[in-house]
Amino acid sequence: MKIMVVGGGGREHAIIKKLKENQEIEKIYALPGNGGIAADAECVPIGATDLDGIVKFAAENAIDYAVVAPDDPLVMGCVDRLEAIGIPCFGPRANAAIIEGSKVFSKNLMKQYGIPTAAYEVFDDAEKALAYLETAPIPTVIKADGLALGKGVIIADTREKAKAAVISIMQDKQFGKSGDQIVIEEFLEGPEVSVLSFTDGETIVPMISSMDHKRAGDGDTGLNTGGMGTVAPNPYYTDAVAEECMNNIFLPTVKAMKAEGRPFKGCLYFGLMITKDGVKVIEYNCRFGDPETQVVLPLLKSDLFTIMRAVTDGKLSETPVEFSDKYAACVIMASDGYPVKYEKGYEITIPADITDKVFVAGAAKKDGKLLTSGGRVLGVTAIADQLKDAIDSSYAMVDRIHFDNAYWRHDIGKRAMEAK
Ligand code: AMP
Ligand code: GLY
Prior knowledge:
alpha+beta, 6-stranded antiparallel beta sheet, 5-stranded parallel beta sheet, Rossmann fold, 13 helices, Dna Ligase, domain 1, binds glycine
């Protein structure tokens, strides 16, 4: 069995390490992968959005199964293209990936099907949006409709900042066509929970919950990043919250997508906020979260490839999906200056006894050395019986990994510990 994983970050490394547990799989290719993933898969220099290159590679190398992990190729229709040449895939088709690809689509879907989310208005005209902001409640949240590298959400605590956001998205086209339409929505408050799920379009099985740490600095300060660390499970996700989510959000979403003729198959990610008025959807993603995947998959006891095949074949209801009852913590080591400006090319040293705990995101291999090549460089995941031990053990490994200009948050898991 030859597998191809599209993508090249820490999430893909976590997926590949988990897939390797399956004995049927003889070969894994990563497109493009990275210098760290190269230890676990054969990396092929084809970019994740080069759909022609991906399809050609798959055909020429008799790939048996493809996992498309990042948002862009999914939204661009990578799965549709691979299925068209007979390759079964894990990941939604473009008509379902739109749940992440268009915030206007997802907000309208939730409104139509009564799925709880922040109240909102949609605008395709900057003047109307600016006029609305004269009287809108503040703080308010401005979201570019399309994909924007995780930067398309602006929380404005003054009317002036809100208007500036509208101008930069709609008039200055900061995110290009992604800003042709915007959503302006109610500002919600409460603890956030990430829930990744497997769904085959009918059945939905939530994975263990997790908590991301999106801001760059300790104490949740500084700019938003792709995520500086995660813990799982999330202590705010109690059994009662899980039941509410299943009844009001998870099942209704899967049914809504089916009813719209857009059955979602793959990993559907729910970004949730537990507000005083109940759990609400902040965002959907059409893929595994990063770095949520680096704590969720290491806790998965069942075989990932078996579950993925069941999702593709519409047999998820017959397939066990079991998680460990332990805790996981992942600390991201980044290049200092991320997410704005950072230097690259520094040698990374990872002690041999902990390489299996390290998921590499931004590193290149050169002359046998592993060099930093991105903002988020790697994630270090520890598992333990108690959350505190997982956090301590992850930080103990971080202290043993070296590269110049390394930066990491020192408080991953602190909020989760305080919630207990
Ligand atoms: P996203 O880029 O969609 O992941 O959103 C980034 C972050 O913005 C989320 O994780 C939330 O912390 C925050 N956010 C998004 N929408 C809202 C909202 N309506 N109210 C409060 N915070 C929000
Ligand atoms: N960690 C959030 C995301 O993957 O979008």
